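The protein record passed on below.

***
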Amino acid sequence: MSRYEGILFDLDGTLCRQTGDVTAAYEAAFESVGIDPFGEPGALWPLLDGPPDPDDHVGYLAAGFARLAAIHDRRVDPVALATAFVAAADHGAVEFTPGAEAALDRAAETARTGLVTNGPRSRQSPKVETLGLADRLETVVYAGDLPRRKPHAEPFDRTLAALDVAPADTVYVGNSLKYDIAGAFTAGLDSVWLRPDPDADDEGYRPTWTLDSLDALDTVLEGSDESGD
């Protein structure tokens, strides 16, 4: 028996992680725009500003490419390069994060279940298909195709309406403080922060629960006390 009637999950970094050949996509992006490659994916990531911006994925990557181009003294169109990189990526090349499958099974045994992802259907549905999530969850909401994404309440409101559960009886599980935890709070849900490492700081946010692995989700579903750590 779960303490919650509804259990919602984030997708990227929570239920799944990428397994595709990033180097191949990187090289294909340069070939697509007709310039010789410079740098490599490992040099691009540190130049990005924090976690991906679901409101402007291309712009987020373009800023990194602009910095990388400046370091290599190359004048390029970073937006065109970022657009080509996104297009070359194999969005269906993903795998479950540790504990995700067991967490999904446990959630489905005890509550209504759903997925709320900030990406658009075009980018996220291949991941959902690869993982078979449409058969494991009762509803999937692609907030990237809505007027407002997380941390706005609209994606959560739509999911709760589809499941016919109240915000106060629902918990949202996600890895992003500023999108998942803030969004759950805005919509009136409890939250589980799946932190990237044990030393990560909550930056002043107040998740209802903090876990280092989805293997520990039972402590949330069966727990009698709220815990922020």
